[in-house]
Amino acid sequence: MKRLLITLAVALSSPLALAQPASLDQLLQDIREIRSSEQAAMREREAQFLRERDNQQTLLTQAERELAPIKAEADRLKTEFDQLEAELAATETQMRERSGNLGELFGVVRQMAGDTRSQWQDSLLNMQFPERLAQLDQLAGAAQIPTVETLEQFWFMLQEDMTASGKISRFPAPVIGRDGQQQDVPVVLVGPFVALAEGEYLTYQAEAGTLQVADKQPDGRGLINDFLAPRTELADLMVDPTRGTVIGQMQLTPSFMDRVRQGGLVGYVIIALGVLGVVLALIKLVWLLGISNKVERQANSLDQLRDDNPLGRILGVIGSKPRLEELDTLELKLDEAILRETPALDRGNGLIKLLAAVAPLLGLLGTVTGMIATFQAITLFGTGDPKLMAGGISQALVTTVQGLVVAIPLLFLHGMLASRSKAVIQVLEQQSAGLIALHLDSGERRGE
């Protein structure tokens, strides 16, 4: 009954049910046709399901047949692996039993090879024996017990190094010049201490395995040619007992010009102002010394007035024989003449004092800019590499030193010039006052 109702509902929902049947017989006929078509479709789907089920069963059966040999092969390989692992363990046990003390000897040899490798890494003798570092690396990283030939080779390398450390050797080797060009030149090794070529000391570049002409040559360079020349007697030579460490540190020590360059633009400005101030101060000092000598000569010969010195020009205002009625205005005239000469004597002192005050301020400016550069480097690259911050720190410190070095001498020069100028002005005032007193005294005597 339920199936019939479902069929009837489907029939009513179909497009055919939308048309009005002619009679009940026609309606019954339509329902039968619809039911028949649906049953056919259901039988087709059922048949398709059965076919797919049979196909899946066939695939399953085929996969099971293929899995069986693979599983058998996996079991065989596992059995073989277990057998080989057991044989390896037995072999290792047998090797340890047979090696005995050789295992400890092997460890000592590897440790000695590693220690020797670290000691010889920066040795100048690597240029004479370039293959020995690779042999030490191979011996230190070997996983097998060394043979007798390997131990003899290691002993021979040690003996070879001891022998070469006490000899002077000459051989061709690649050398990098100051221009950056590399060429093969005759090199003289004085043991592991110094390397010489063409009258100059060389430094060993361990990373590249080459020699390079030292930019900063140590003292005793003039002895190299005498040492390398053919001779029968002994010759002196300066050597580095630290095996190149002192010469290497000399290359890292900045020179005077390196320090100047570290100050940057602010440092150059400070130096320029310092040079300007010193030149002006020296010119002014020489001029004042000349003026002092002329004033002194004029003071010793008041009867011959000259206009090439301030005292002569001041005394020229009075005249040789002033009248008594003019003595009242004589002091005013002398004061006016002294005021005209004072600016020339003090000219330049203010500028030198200003330069002495500006130099430390520029040094402080360089310090601030250097610290800004340092913090920028820290922001971009972090604090892992101190060399990235060295430039800013060097600028900060060097500019401060430059500012103080410029300011201190300029202050001394300014004080010297100011005292010299005051001394000349004081002489002018003393001579003027003495002249006034002399004329007043002579006037009073004539009045009597």
- Our estimate of the beta-strand percent is 5-15%
- Helix-strand makeup class: alpha+beta
Characterize the quaternary organization of these chains. single chain
Give the strand tally.
5
Q: Describe the strand arrangement of the main beta sheet, using strand numbers.
A: 1-2-3-4-5
Distance, first to last CA: 175 Å
Order of helices and strands: HHHHHEEEEEHHHHHHHH
Considering DSSP H and I runs of 4 or more, what fraction of the residues is helical?
Answer: 55-70%
Quickly count the helices: 13
Mind describing the biggest β-sheet? 5 strands, mixed, barrel
Uncertain segments are 1-21
User: Mean of the pLDDT scores?
Assistant: 79
Query: What sort of overall outline do the alpha carbons produce when their principal axes are compared?
Result: elongated
Q: How many domains make up the coordinates?
A: 3
Radius of gyration over all CA atoms, rounded: 54 Å
Coiled coil: 24-101
Protein name: MotA/TolQ/ExbB proton channel family protein
Transmembrane segments: 265-289, 354-381, 393-413
Domain MotA/TolQ/ExbB proton channel: 326-429
